[in-house]
Amino acid sequence: MARAARSGTRLDVVVLAFCVLLSAFAMALPQSTREPIAGALRRTLMAPLVTVQRGAEQWRVAWLESERLALGRDSLAAAAADATALRTENERLRGLLGLGSRLQWGIIPAEALQERGRPGDVITSLVLSAGRNAGITTYSPVVGPDGVIGLVQSADPGTSVVMLFSHPDFRASAMTLDGSVFGIVYPHAASGSSGYLLELRNVAFRTLLKPGTEIITSGLGGTFPRGIPVGTVLSEITTTEGWSRTYLLRPAVNPANVTSVMVMTPQRATQGVGNAWVDSAAVDSAHARLQAVADSMAKHAAAVEAQRRKAALDSARRDSVRADSARRAAGGGGQ
């Protein structure tokens, strides 16, 4: 066994020495003689190795191209996500600026310092980036461009804590837009995404509210001024109370998406908000109506154009039929 191993080692050394001498001899040959020999070797003995090298190089190029495309797709996806986030944030900031311009005074802007919880978690409080030093006091209304968010529960010099409308202790007096129906808003006791629903309780039993009815603050109770959107009616909830009705509301604001808020000072809350939110809703409604009118005009213009083209084609087809009939008549008369 050992003798066979030594014999194999000597053979390997002899083959290596022969290859070294052969390569040195090949390198010493002139260029004109060396190239034909190298070409012949590439076509015969080295052909499998050349094929393997070519395949490896093609695989490497394909892998690099696949990696480059994957990086490009990832970059495009990240850019699209950033663009969507920026667009959403710009819309929120424009809404806050519009609300500030309509209210004009007695409002304190603040950032919501909330942490993103797990999906399905119900947020019941927020920490704001402003406190007593900015003029925020307890029980100050906290609002956004879409409506009620909550009220200040406690205020420190630099920060404050907001009780959201999803908090179990939240209450607010509310009514319909026309002021004909009143009730008290409570958080809806449910988990998951439905935890952000509200209940309008203590509505007179003789009153029926249709789904989609808008509910705003009534100004009663001394916390929220009259006219701030609260939500819209979804359906009636069956309760054991026979003297009043309870309705389920979809809130105007989703607390999970709140990033910036407006805190109203007590003086501003006392003076009221006028038509700050009603004007905004009217502008949005007017814009929607104008867009609908523009779409209708565009559809009408397209229909008129289609009819005109159809009439032109029908006229051309009739002219062609008349011309063919005239030619056939002329040919028959000539015969």
One letter per element, helices H and strands E, the order comes to HHHEEEEEEEEEEEEHH
Number of domains: 2
Secondary structure tally: strands: 12
CATH secondary-structure class of the largest domain: Mainly Beta
**N- to C-terminal distance:** 114 Å
CATH architecture of the largest domain: Beta Barrel
Helix residue percentage: 40-55%
Task: Write structural notes for this entry.
By secondary structure, the chain is of the alpha+beta class. It has two domains: 2-65, no CATH class; 105-285, Thrombin, subunit H (Beta Barrel). 48% of the residues lie in helices and 21% in strands. The protein has five helices and twelve strands. The chain has helices at residues 2-28, 31-43, 47-103, 266-271, 276-334, and strands spanning 107-111, 125-128, 141-144, 147-155, 160-164, 172-176, 182-187, 198-204, 214-217, 229-237, 244-251, 260-264. The chain has a six-stranded antiparallel β-sheet with strand order 1-12-3-4-5-2. It has a six-stranded antiparallel barrel with strand order 6-7-8-11-10-9. β3 (141-144) and β4 form a beta hairpin. The longest helix is centred in the C-terminal third of the chain and has 59 residues, at 276-334. The radius of gyration is 40 Å and the shape is elongated. The termini are far apart.
